[in-house]
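Page 47, continued from p. 46.
Same chain as before, 201 aa.
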Amino acid sequence: MNATASQNCNLTADDMRELLRLDHLAPGRFSAVLLEDLALLLAQGANPGAVVEEIEHLERPKSVPTRTKPSAPLRFPLLGLHHKHYQLTTADSLLINLRAEAKAHKPELTQTIYDGLRAAEKSDFETVADVAGKIAGALVSDAYNRRRADSRLTGEWIVYVTHEQQNFYICLAVHGDDAHTRAKVDRVVGDEWPFLRALVA
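Result:
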């Protein structure tokens, strides 16, 4: 367990395994690094249950729904690995999704702003704050809810590898931090699961 997580919540890897009932889900297929990452999430006030829900979906896709993107293989320098998005309700995750939606739907969002401003010009009763609130609501809530309804929420990743038709869950990762993720993977395949080394080279 890393020092930050253990100082903030005093939970061991075994505590996290028991707390989240991981041995019932995928016995022996959660790395110590992943358990450290989950403890750190908890110590930071985030809900590690969001990660567990996505792992449940990977283990039983027909019985457990997901609101995030489908799992996909990773590219160099993480070849051989897969990732599954999980969604935390944090400002960072919200911002990632709103940026993606704005990029994908710029004309529609521009039209929403324009329509809101035109409606305000015609109203004698709405203040600037009222109009701004309506536009912000449309831009933020509608965009986020559209991504959620379409199972397109993105965010942080669960990194795993498939071996003999079973998923081995290695660590949590974020976009743009491939070097740190690679170091975690190397630690797991070096210390815990050397039989996976050839799959993730």
